Amino acid sequence: MTEPSTTRAWMRPHDWAEVVLGVVAVLSFLWVDTDNTAKWTMIVLGALIALDGLLSLAMPGMVYGEGVQIVLGALLFIAPWVLTYTAMNGAAWSSWIIGGLTLVIGAAALPVANAEHGRMAGQH
């Protein structure tokens, strides 16, 4: 029996989307106006999102990785208010959109990771 592509390492579209979103967040200071706080917030959170996405790609049964994505997405989403860069429209909207998408994609990937984790646990 062939395993579905969502359970094989490096094949899950949810995690690839998270890697792309993280990279976009990291590089967004190149095309939006930021201050130092907004720039480094987006670089650090974006890098963490991308790295966690890569870990989830490498280990598809790692359920906590999706939970980390949800938390990182939420942090990026609230960052413009907490770190007071809402007046910088480009940086704020980038944080809201990328953070919101990361949160939604992480939540959508959670059942897939749970199923893979259960399948892997049943093999032992």
SSE layout and pairing:
Layout: H1 13-27, H2 36-58, H3 63-82, H4 89-122
Describe this structure as you would to a colleague.
With 124 residues, this protein is an all-alpha fold. Helix content is 74%, strand content 0%. It is built from 4 helices and no strands. α1 packs antiparallel against α4, α2 packs antiparallel against α3 and α2 (36-58) packs parallel to α4 (89-122). The radius of gyration is 16 Å and the shape is elongated. The two termini are 18 Å apart. The mean pLDDT is 86.
E-strand count: 0
Strand percentage lies at under 5%
**Count of helix runs:** 4
| Pattern of helices and strands | HHHH
Helix share bin: over 70%
Mean pLDDT over the residues: 86
> How is the biggest beta sheet arranged?
none
**Category by helix and strand content:** mainly alpha
Shape verdict:
elongated
Distance between the termini: 18 Å
What does the radius of gyration come to? Answer: 16 Å
Multimerization state: single chain
